[in-house]
Amino acid sequence: MADLLHIQNLSLSFPHKVCFDNFSAHISQGDRIAIIGRNGSGKSSLIKAIAQMGTNIATAYIPQIITDFDAYSGGEKFNRALSIALSGNPDLMLLDEPTNHLDAHNRSGLLRKLLSYRGTLIIVTHDREILRNCVHILWHIDNGKVTIFRGQYDDYMKELQTKYQSLMHQVDLLKCQEKDAHRGLMKEQERSAKSKAVGQKKVSNRRWMKSVGDLKAMRAEVSRGSKLKAISKKKQDLLGQLEQIHLPKVIIPRFNLSAQKVAQGTIVSISDGAIGYGDTFIWNNINLSVHSSERVALTGRNGSGKTTLIRGILDDSKVIKAGNWNTPPLKDIGVLDQHYKTLSPDRSVLEIISEAVPEWSHAEIRCHLNDFLFRKNEEILEAVKNLSGGEKARLSLAQIAAHPPKLLILDEITNNLDLETCDHIIQILREYPGAMIVVSHDETFLKEIKIDKYYGG
After folding, report:
1. CA-CA distance, 333 to 436, in Å (whole number)?
2. Are 424 and 280 in contact (CB under 8 A)?
3. Where are the alpha helices (DSSP H) in 360-452?
4. pLDDT at residue 287, as a whole number
5. Distance between CA atoms of residues 219 and 188, nearest Å
6. Distance (Å, rounded) from C-alpha 90 to C-alpha 110?
7. How many Cα neighbours within 13 Å face the side chain of 73?
8. C-alpha span between 154 and 148 (Å, rounded)
9. pLDDT per position as a tens digit, 218-234
10. SS3 state at 346
11. DSSP code string of 75-129
12. Residue 332 CB contacts under 8 Å (≥ 6 apart), including other chains
């Protein structure tokens, strides 16, 4: 296939970090490329740079934040922008996190459009369905470089895992050899020390000259020392290679929830309910019950009233309600959304948890934060406003786990999050012991956190 675009020695850096250096790639007609990587790795900057390069070809670029069509919701804005882009029959289409804010219906529509598009596609996404069905080339930004992989996403992750395990096996073998070489060196040094002691005695009696055995012992000690250094160097080289392979860490959280705090029976009960704004109800005939430890997903298209229903459960004064509403007091409800409103931006990670559970000792707080991958001093002393999206998500969940509510409400928390952070959230939510109401268009996410039932308007 003919080249459509050529990237030559492209670098991206900020005052506090280098995203990648000297990235070069050929983009051919018909290529379908996904740019993946952790939050803050430079994905959006890279796709924006490519958009600026494509001046001599028909290019359509839709960023994460669409500023046009003010009267529309986020999902509606994207659909309008995509329709306009496709109507121009672009040779190159660039999409930055297109599934954000899309409901299940619109996500399915986007998938169909991407599969039928015949031009060149470059997409920044964390959506596994798109990664598995719509692309055949991955650009992975990690550890200051961009790795190009031609193949499926699952195959790439398997290859990384296999390579990592192979290197770990080699490191383990070298550790054994290093121990053997070290023991051998200690024995040679012990022999040399005994030989030296004997030699000094002979010198004092003027009857000593280095024997062949003494010289062999010295050479053996030098040889073993050189071997030990070689093994140590090879091990360090392998450890360096391991650092270049970023495999997601696993979170195994512990929730601080005593038996008497576990909610029993029905947590939320709404019958013949209605909700809306001003004097207009936008959702009628609401009949919803949520029991202890039950997980409920609110479904429906964009604008159907899911977030409004959550505001009703939270007793928001901006909404109007009718019918019978029995909901927990606010102190028993935890809310987690994509903006992490429960985190004070000027507080440190340590202060956030200290304020949540003031009765905990410093050691208990450090242990709790360690469970959520905040382990270094500089990590726990960092201000919230300087954290990445993934770090804010983990800290919000650490805050909830320290003092778990009886009802946890999640509102589109996977938007804009990389795959690793989504996996971390899933690992934590699987362990959550209380009731849960979730608004999300991500079917994979809902399946992974083991939703019990779906309720839609």
Report:
1. 10
2. no
3. 362-371, 377-380, 389-402, 419-431, 443-448
4. 95
5. 10
6. 16
7. 13
8. 14
9. 565 566 667 777 877 78
10. coil
11. HHHHHHHHHHHHHT--SEEEEESTTTT--HHHHHHHHHHHHH--SEEEEE---HH
12. 263, 405, 406, 407
Residue type, 268: V
User: What are 104's two structure tokens?
Assistant: 């299940």
Residue with tokens 């399915």: 108
Query: Is the alpha carbon torsion for 237, 240, 244, 247 positive or negative?
Result: positive
Under 8 Å between Cβ of 4 and 29: yes
Instruction: Give this prediction's pTM.
Output: 0.67
- What confidence score (pLDDT) does residue 441 get? 83
Residue 65's pLDDT band (boundaries 50, 70, 90)?
A: confident
- The CA distance from 90 to 86, in Å, is 7
- Joined together, the tokens standing for residue 402 give 């320290």
Q: pLDDT tens, 256-315?
A: 644 345 557 899 999 999 999 998 999 999 999 999 889 999 988 877 888 899 999 999
DSSP states along 432-449: --SEEEEE---HHHHHHT
CB 62 within 8 A of CB 167: no
Lookup: tokens for 265: 């029976």
Q: Mind spelling out the 3-state secondary structure of 260-294?
A: HHCCCCEEEEEEEEEEEECCEEEEEEEEEEEECCC
